[in-house]
Amino acid sequence: MITNRAQITKSPWSTTIYRTTVSDIEKMILMVGREYLVWSSVA
Fold first, then answer.
1. What are the angstrom distances between the C-alpha of 15 and each of 12, 26, 36?
2. Is the dihedral of CA 28, 4, 12, 9 positive or negative?
3. pLDDT for 23-38, tens place per residue?
4. With 0-12 CB in 10 A as exposed, 13-18 as middle and 19+ as buried, what is 17?
5. How confident is the model at residue 42 (pLDDT cuts 50, 70, 90)?
6. How does residue 19 score in pLDDT terms, banded at 50, 70 and 90?
7. How many CB atoms within 10 Å of residue 26?
8. Considering only CA atoms, which of 12, 40, 37 is closest in space to residue 20?
9. Angle at Cα 22 formed by Cα 19 and Cα 23, nearest 5°?
10. Sequence-distant (≥ 6) Cβ neighbours of residue 5 within 8 angstroms
11. Rounded CA gap, 31 and 28, in Å?
12. I need a labelling partner for 29 at 20 to 30 A (CA). Which of 10, 23, 36, 38 fits?
């Protein structure tokens, strides 16, 4: 997925990997945050 995006946009590897990593981290934080809110409300 990262390789295809890099080939299509022809952007530097560092920029592409950085963007992908940041978006993945944001998704993980959102998911963990939601689960934390659910568990804290249950407890």
1. 5, 17, 31
2. negative
3. 888 999 999 999 998 8
4. middle
5. confident
6. confident
7. 10
8. 12
9. 85
10. 11, 16, 20
11. 5
12. 10
Query: What are φ and ψ of residue 10, in 5° steps?
Result: 55, 35
Return the sign of the alpha-carbon dihedral for residues 7, 8, 12, 13: negative
5-14: per-residue pLDDT in tens? 545 556 566 6
Query: In one letter, which amino acid is 20?
Result: T
Structure-block tokens of residue 4: 């295809």
User: Does the global pTM surpass 0.70?
Assistant: no
